Amino acid sequence: MTTDLLTSAGPAWAARALAVFPAGSNGEFGIPAELIPVLERGEGGRVWDTEGRQFLDYTMAWGSALVGHGHPKIREAVTRALPDGYNFAGIHRRSVELAERLQDLIPCAERVRFVASGTEATMMCLRVAQAATGRPKVLKFEGAYHGQHPVGITSMLNGRPTVLPQSDPSGAGASWVEHDVLVAPFNDLAATERILTQHASEIAAVIVEPLHRCLAPAPGFLEGLRAVTRRLGVVLVFDEVVTGFRFGLGGAQQYYGVTPDLAAFGKALGGGLPLGAYAGKAELMEVVNEHRLPGPNYAWSASTTGGNPVSCAASLAALDLYSEPDCYSRLHSAGRRFRGLLADALATTRTVGQVLGDGPLAQIAFSAQPVTDQRSWLASNRARGRALMLELLRRGVFLNPMGTKLYLSLAHDDRLLQEFGERLVDSLRATAPAV
Ligand SMILES: Cc1ncc(COP(=O)(O)O)c(C=O)c1O
User: Fold this and answer.
1) Ligand 1, atom 12: closest residue by C-alpha
2) Total structural domains within the chain
3) Which terminus of the chain is more solvent-facing, meaning fewer CB atoms within 10 Å of its CB: N or C?
4) Catalytic residue status for 84
């Protein structure tokens, strides 16, 4: 890619984007005005912008395009479904079929409901837990993002550092949410257990992303959470919006061997189209049964476009692709190879850092100390991380400079990884601090 296509006025489409979207974006990215790409199309693991520039895609629609962009099987399924109508808000043949497949595949999924996004899915898991237990509060882990509802964003941004378990509502747009949320350090089972035991009578749920952003769970951490929540009658919720269908057909709960009470899905579930789901133990999911209205122990649940037949058709086609015998060996081996390539680039450029991640996900942390939770992540050189991401973007890698997690897909073959590796070495050199 060449950057000389960028004029001082910025490309026309980027200027138009800046005039209609705050920061010229539909959320996140935080790209400086002169670098904003306005996308035109994508194919496999590459995208093209309105200026005709080609980018290697290492964000993959924030992980929702796990099968790759414009996959012929997804296009065919959507094209076949379209003439029947796009949305009925009622149960459709395809949503029943899809729910049955989720029930078969996901260990905790005795019952399922569809929504349109990961945000709705995690929000509903928490509301179900609150209605089922009659308790008001939720425990989450510092630094976690569970979607754009107030609890989902609380204590993610570190705008106002707190003494745990006090939460920080920065960025939630709802300061009162701090009263509903307790926060624990990820990977610290003893601290989490202490907070839970102290506040058990008011905690409805623990919500955890099994791979916390890009941080792997310490051995025994998820198992410990399972045991303590069961003992205290607290609902254990896995946010599998990222890990679902990415680590295996049964999600991270199958991959790590710990079954939660409820789980939220999105992203890869829809094969790139908008779809979310929440699922769990039948007795908990009964709280959304309309025959219980108005309660007690009832939680309102309705999604106008969640489970629409077109998204379900895409999802069924994606599940067929995920069910191919070599799908997960390909994703996991691409992930291993990719993380190796990142480590090699750090070594080649004599950069102090470490590579995080699992499955087809990876991230570089610029720190000599082990990064295992939010505090150790905050202690890393995040300014260097941002500079690197922007340099990669300049060199034709499409990614999200605000979230440094890199997503692979089934389209990320050796060539795409190699091309990234070369640009990474150049970008590390270009952003190295002067000595
Ligand atoms: C772990 C996690 N949970 C929930 C969400 C929210 O999903 P959505 O953007 O579909 O609402 C995200 C989105 O990035 C996520 O990473």
Assistant:
1) 147
2) 2
3) C
4) no
Which residue range is the domain that position 79 belongs to? Answer: 72-322
**Least reliable range by pLDDT among 22-31, 237-246, 262-271:** 22-31
* 3-state SS, residue 147: coil
Mean per-residue pLDDT for 308-322?
Answer: 98
Query: Domain boundary residue among 291, 322, 353?
Result: 322
User: Residue 20 corresponds to which amino acid?
Assistant: V
Mean pLDDT (the chain) is 95
Residue 68 CB less than 6 A away from ligand 1: no
The answer to whether the beta carbons of residues 263 and 238 sit under 8 Å apart is yes
- Residue 151 Cβ contacting ligand 1 at under 6 Å: no
Give φ, ψ of 215 to 5 degrees: -95, 125
Summarize pLDDT for 107-123 with one digit per residue, the tens. 999 999 999 999 999 99
255 in catalytic set: no
Out of 145, 256, 322, 407, the active site residue is: 145
Q: What is the CA radius of gyration of the chain?
A: 22
Rounded to the nearest 10 degrees, how much is the dihedral formed by the CA atoms of 193, 199, 200, 204?
-110
Does 62 share its domain with 148?
Answer: no
Q: Does residue 422 form part of some domain? A: yes
Q: What is the mean pLDDT of residues 18-40?
A: 94
Query: Is 145 considered catalytic here?
Result: yes
Domain boundary pick from 265, 294, 322: 322
Which residue minimizes the CA distance to atom 16 of ligand 1?
242
For residues 241 and 378, state if they share a domain. Answer: no
119 CA to centre of ligand 1 in angstroms: 6
